[in-house]
Amino acid sequence: MEGVLFLNKPAGMTSHDCVAKMRRLARTKKIGHTGTLDPDVTGVLPICIGRATKIVEYLTASSKTYEAEVTIGIATTTEDASGDVVNRKAVTKPITKNEIDEVFHSMVGTIEQIPPMYSAVKVNGKKLYEYARAGIEIERPVRKITITELCQLDEIVHEENIARFRFRVTCSKGTYVRTLAVMIGEKLGYPAHMSHLIRTKSGRFHIDDCFTFEEIEEKVTKGILQEVLLPIGEALKDLPKIYIHDNLTEKVKNGAVLDLPKEFLDYEVGSPIVIYDNSMRCLAIYAKHPTKPHLMKPTKVLMNV
């Protein structure tokens, strides 16, 4: 069994929990996920099974789209609704759509973000949440992220001393949407936190492509789980690709260094190039050679001799 399964992750489970459950259902240890979701977050979680575990990093690198709700006027320790309240400021003046539009416009593009203390980012070999649970505040590395879309989804709801509204964001790998919610609040002049989040898209794969655990269990019972797994080659089809003749197939399977086609001579070193044979089978992932610019070398051989 191999391929990519698109799980509609339920609330209350960690991404690791989802992988553990899939190992039991698929009866294989070779399973990994592409892009961690917090326990309270739902939505698209691609699960790689069998040889597809070799392509996890390429699916993880894809952009993600989320629909979130930000609550203005209250800040929490975890930057989401699960944390303890650490700051309040009453929203006594209505927040306007024009104000939100200005904030969103200022955040589109490449911006800097500091990961939350309650996150799995490692500093000096320890995860930030380990420091946070020990009551230790530590300097966190600033990271650059890219926001390609940021828009309001519905009306602003003003309640007693707070305001909330939903927004959609499409962003690069490594973006913390709960930190975005805090940043939105700061730009509006208030403490804030993320009060709801769902991932609606990972790369080109939409939540409508996903299966619930109940649906997966039904397919396992019927013995048809393999039928709904996306083949490796299909999962990688948006990456640059090369189709090779049969006489090169064995060389690729053996991990040979090959001539770099001229259309890739200006390609960035390390960027993936997917190799397919004439039967549309995905054989390997290559990259431009780091020291020999007219050659390319394998980074992942997906089909061995």
Name of the CATH architecture of the largest domain: 2-Layer Sandwich
Q: Give the full name of the CATH homologous superfamily of the largest domain.
A: Pseudouridine synthase
CATH topology of the largest domain: Pseudouridine synthase
Task: Name the beta content range.
Answer: 25-35%
- The CATH class name of the largest domain reads Alpha Beta
The outline comes out as globular
Low-confidence spans: pLDDT under 50, at least 5 residues?
A: none
Tally of discrete structural domains = 3
Overall SS class? alpha+beta
- Helix run count: 8
- The run of helices and strands is EHEEHEEEHEEEHEEEHEEHHEHEEEE
The percent range for helix content is 10-25%
Strands, total number = 19
InterPro entries: PsdUridine_synth_cat_dom_sf, PsdUridine_synth_N, tRNA_psdUridine_synth_TruB, TruB_C
Protein name: tRNA pseudouridine synthase B
Keywords: Isomerase, tRNA processing
GO molecular function, one term: tRNA pseudouridine(55) synthase activity
